[in-house]
Amino acid sequence: MLFDCECLMGRPKQPFDGAAAGVVPDAADLVAEMRRLGIARALVRHRGCLDAAPEIGNALLMEEIAPHPQLIPAWFLTPDGIEGEWQPAAAVEAMLAHYHVRVAWTLAQGRDAAGFLLEPWCAGELLAALESHRAVLLLSYADVALNTLHNLLTGFPGMPVVMLDVPRYGRNQPLYRLMALHRNLHLSISPLYSVHEGIEDLCRNFGSERLLFGSGYPVCEGGAALAMLNYADITDADRRAIAGENLQRLLDEVKP
């Protein structure tokens, strides 16, 4: 049962290049792509959170995925919280209690970022609120400095973090060191990773329980991630864990 952790819906400001050219990344297209690849469920973010505002993108996401129970929402959050109360804990409580959303994502320092730092001194209230519920936080590799990631993982060890857009750097020594130091760090194995025997090496060094299948929709060809997983020289138990069991476990461990 494939459970995709890395999907982004919504039209970009500029047309896609390359393999994604001509793709309209809406719910119908995503569901069709999932059907083509045999993906049962997908964790989905919305680009409107970046191009308009977090609350607009989150509302669009909930509206557009409503007819599709196989699409699982992830909300964009910032340390500002929600309008009116401006408290991060209130945003997390609303996300969990009223909308039953168990996964958050954010961008801080990189392109299209929300203009804050993920260091504990700046985003600590938000991170503490997420940790108190064991809510899952998705971050992009390109958006967060690895030293900042280390500080975040150290300061909030009860918060599972999933690193998206992990690049093809082979034996990425800083990332390997972070994986060794922090049990709460998880990696999306998407087409951007595509390291020769990389899945095997990660399983040997850290086990399979912190690796998640990611298609990279819509900018990547999801079949590449599927091929990497299918042809990896790992046990069937490890393959099932990466394919979907690990992500489901993270969601089951979120405390309402």
Task: Tell me which CATH architecture applies here.
Answer: Alpha-Beta Barrel
C-alpha geometry: globular
Q: What's the count of strands?
A: 9
As for the CATH topology, it is: TIM Barrel
Question: What's the CATH H-level homologous superfamily?
Answer: Metal-dependent hydrolases
Distance between the termini: 25 Å
Instruction: Give the proportion of residues in helices.
Output: 40-55%
Specify Rg, calculated over alpha carbons.
17 Å
What does the largest sheet look like? 6 strands, parallel
Percentage beta strand: 15-25%
Overall domain count = 1
SS element count, helices: 10
Q: What's the arrangement of strands in the largest beta sheet?
A: 4-5-6-7-8-9
Structure report:
The protein has 256 residues and is of the alpha/beta class. The protein has one domain (2-252): Metal-dependent hydrolases (TIM Barrel), CATH 3.20.20.140. Helix content is 42%, strand content 16%. It contains ten helices and nine strands. The strands form two sheets. A six-stranded parallel beta sheet has the order 4-5-6-7-8-9. Strands 1-2-3 form a three-stranded parallel beta sheet. β6, α6 (146-155) and β7 (161-164) form a beta-alpha-beta unit. The longest helix has 17 residues, at 236-252. It is globular and about 50 Å long. The two termini are 25 Å apart.
Summarize the structure.
This protein has helices at residues 27-37, 48-51, 54-65, 88-98, 120-133, 146-155, 173-181, 198-206, 222-231, 236-252, and strands at 2-9, 39-46, 71-73, 75-76, 103-105, 136-140, 161-164, 185-189, 211-213. It is α/β, with parallel strands linked by helices and 256 residues long. The chain has one domain: Metal-dependent hydrolases (TIM Barrel, Alpha-Beta Barrel), CATH 3.20.20.140.
